[in-house]
Amino acid sequence: MHYLLLTSSVxxxxxxxxxxxxxxxxxxxxxxxxxxxVKIYCVTSNPSLPAQVEWKIARTxxxxxxxxxxxxxxxxxxxxxxxxxxxxIRTVNIEDSGIYICKLNNTxxxxxxxxxxxxxxxxxxxxxxxxxxxxxxxxxFLLTLCVIVPLVLFYKQEKKEDAVYDxxxxxxxYEGLEIDHxxxxxxxxxxxxxxxxxxxxxxxPDQE
Length: 208
What we know:
Elements: H1 2-19, E1 23-26, E2 29-33, E3 38-44, E4 53-58, E5 65-67, E6 74-77, E7 85-89, E8 98-104, E9 107-108, E10 112-117, H2 122-164, H3 185-192
């Protein structure tokens, strides 16, 4: 009876201890350039408790995770009584970006986000900046042409229409027609005109 109670107490103590285990990860975020090396620690709330560590990776916090495969670049260290579990990623690249999750005795940690960005050379940054400025200037020039060219074409069209309806400076309506001059006709008429002092004689019809 006493043996049974002792066994039950030990099993309950183990269950309670394992049930209250907490897993922490340090650090929670890494932001590095390509080519660097990073190290993530997996820490438990009960250092004396033996633990089996498994590392997983996910693209997002809410996304699915898959087991992380070790290689010459990705090295994992198991937990001991004097050392925390850890993972080291050497010469990181863009594809290494993601959420690294430590699973210790079936309890997952909060995850550590690794964000890897490309290494930028100051000369390349300056070159890209100049190219961007040139593109902005070219865009402004093209925009100006799009505004000016239609205005010039419209102005030329207006000038052409005005030229069609312009009145001629010299009237050539009667050009080529011969004009007859009467010469001294007015003088001849004046000689044939009756004398105003002459007496007018009126012949009566009875006189015939």
